[in-house]
TrEMBL record:
One of its GO terms (biological process) is intracellular protein transport. Coiled coil: none annotated. This is AP4E1 protein. It comes from Syrrhaptes paradoxus. GO terms for cellular component: endomembrane system; membrane coat. Keywords: Membrane, Protein transport, Transport. The keyword NAD does not apply. It is found in: Endomembrane system. Belongs to the adaptor complexes large subunit family. The lineage of its organism: Eukaryota, Metazoa, Chordata, Craniata, Vertebrata. Residues 3-109 form the Clathrin/coatomer adaptor adaptin-like N-terminal domain. InterPro entries: Adaptor_Complx_Large_Subunit, ARM-like, ARM-type_fold, Clathrin/coatomer_adapt-like_N.
Length: 110
């Protein structure tokens, strides 16, 4: 089931790149994918969020806490060992999350 959810999120990402106005009605599904219990599904959803935040960061400021929590889990080694690379916990996810957080905080005076 996890692989099906992950592939569905990846397909939605590709569809979003081709026709973003056609997937506007399923943003709730993206939020569910971000909070999925499977780390692969959550990781796949980060691509969609990075793209959407590049286009409109103000619309996703409310998710900053979620992204910080996910980053803490990644750095804390809470993901399965499959995500580690040379003893570094999911470095590609850390980079993706830092990019997202950078975009969200770019115009924030705090």
């Amino acid at each position: 089931r996890e692989i099906v959810r992950r592939k569905a999120v990846q397909a939605l990402y590709k569809f979003y790149l081709i026709a973003p106005n056609q997937v506007q009605h399923i943003h709730d599904k993206f939020r569910k994918a971000l909070c999925d219990r499977d780390a692969g599904v959550m990781a796949a959803s980060l691509h969609i969020y990075l793209q959407m935040i590049k286009e409109n960061s103000a619309g996703y400021k409310d998710l900053t806490g979620s992204f910080v929590t996910i980053l803490k889990q990644v750095v804390g080694g809470k993901l399965p060992a499959d995500f580690n690379y040379h003893s570094v916990p999911a470095p590609w996810l850390q980079i993706q999350l830092l990019r997202i957080l950078g975009l969200l905080g770019k115009d924030d005076p705090r």
